[in-house]
Amino acid sequence: MTQPSNPGLRHLQASDWRAASLLATQATHAVIAMTEGVHQAVWRTLGAPSGATPAQTRGLTGLIYKSIHATTQRVGQGVYTALSRLEPLLQRLHSQGEDSPERLAFVSALNGVMGDRLQASSNPLTMPMTLRYQELQAHVSKGLEPDLARKDQSPNARPKLLLVLHGLCMNDLQWTTQHQGRVVNHAHALAQALGYTPVFVRYNTGLHVSDNGQQLAAQLQRLVAQWPVPVTELTVLAHSMGGLVMRSAVHVADQATEPPGMGWRGLLKNMVFLGTPHHGAPLERLGNWVDVVLGSTPYSRPFAKFGQLRSAGVTDLRYGLVQPSDWQGQDRFQRQPDPRTPLPLPHNVACFTLAACAATQRSVLAERLLGDGLVPLHSALGQHPEPSRQLHFAPSHQAVLYRTNHMQLLSSPQVTKQLLRWLAPVTDSAAPLDSDTFSAPPRT
Question: Cα–Cα–Cα angle for 316, 319, 322, nearest 5°?
Fold first, then answer.
């Protein structure tokens, strides 16, 4: 049998083609709008008036652009309708089952970049938040809904839950990695050593962090209420953006006043952050600078829309926004000072943070400038020059792993060892760090 010219196409499902047609139509509209914006910018320099908005033309030229938009909409709707009718047949021809890791990785990345737009347009590629169970040693993830209380849904249900959250543009399967030919999964290692049942969260990382936090708080309430055995402890392991989402969920639970409140909050014992940008990431701030530069002249201003395709989740990483009040009523692409209301670490919870640095241990300046390639050390450690924004991790609850980048935090066996050291009840968490691998964090 002839192999497809693009092997990646074999991972596409029938509904993906319909979703792709929506994206193609939206992209075409965006390109037409940018072209019209450049056109009008040139006319404006010659004194020609604008149309309904400064970026629109008028008269015969405006009618032409409107006609192109209308034609694009009709063609796009026709393709979408045709694919919708063909989808049942395509589904029967396509062997259905769990998402392949390759397709899931693509969809996860797409959701991270523009997941808010996918949700707003009801695109089938939108990734809903789900709580999931993984078999040990199997690269398969199963949703726990709708029958959380059934023991066959989670056959290894134990009283101690380990909630596991991934970062931006990622998914739950990517917690399983390879290191020197060995499979590494921090959550499974903790489950085997400390008696946890891991519950993985899969979510649309393109939504606002606070929106995901609201959803997670509600799902945790349902999880604890329907778990097959009474839950006695909830521990959280979060990578990157996942740490912000969890802090947001805890804030939602702390604000709940109506009885019976959120019972899972009282079960929360530990929160471990791996490379979480508590105070933001400079790469998003650079993207914000791109918006400003592109918008500085009438000829380049229409192209600023390219920079504004990035999702609400991405722009939340500029300063590490975790509360709705941090972004509501503001233009998220407008350059502005840090708008956050300070939010301390949750009370009655042991909080740990593990930061990475791609450099060898040298000077404080090098550590601050380099970080893990995405998140600077001071952000991952919760340090801030303003006392009200400082996150007060206990000294013994902080560690820095050198010669490690942001993504390698998921595959490093040294990270597993540090997690066991922190969470094992028989281990003295104040014991000295492994000086060959870890270092105490730099001073503020």
Answer: 55
* One-character DSSP codes across 300-362: TGGGHHHHTTS-HHHHHTTTT--SGGGTTTS-TTS--S--PPP-PPPTTSEEEEEEEESS-S-
pLDDT in tens, 112-140: 878 898 898 887 788 999 999 887 655 66
| Sites in the chain below the pLDDT cut of 70 | 1-51, 54-99, 136-140, 145-155, 258-261, 285-309, 362-370, 426-444
How do residues 159-168 score in pLDDT, each as one tens digit? 999 999 999 9
> In 10 A of CB 135, how many CB atoms?
12
- Tokens representing 295 are 């918008």
Of 391, 377, 400, 169, the closest CA to residue 281 belongs to: 377
Q: Which helix H or strand E contains 88, and what residues bound it?
A: helix 59-93
Query: Given the structure tokens 């270092």, which residue do they identify?
Result: 439
Share of the chain above pLDDT 70, in %: 61
CB 133 within 8 A of CB 154: yes
Tell me the CATH architecture of domain 130-280+342-439: 3-Layer(aba) Sandwich (3.40)
Dihedral sign computed on CA atoms, order 176, 177, 178, 182? negative
Q: How do residues 167-213 score in pLDDT, each as one tens digit?
A: 998 999 999 998 888 899 999 999 999 999 999 999 999 999 999 99
Rounded Cα distance between 317 and 333, Å, is 12
Give the other-Cβ count within 10 Å of 198's Cβ.
25
Q: Containing H/E element for 143? A: strand 141-143
Helix (H) or strand (E) holding 236: strand 233-239
Does residue 116 sit in helix, strand or coil? helix
Cβ–Cβ < 8 Å for 398, 383: no
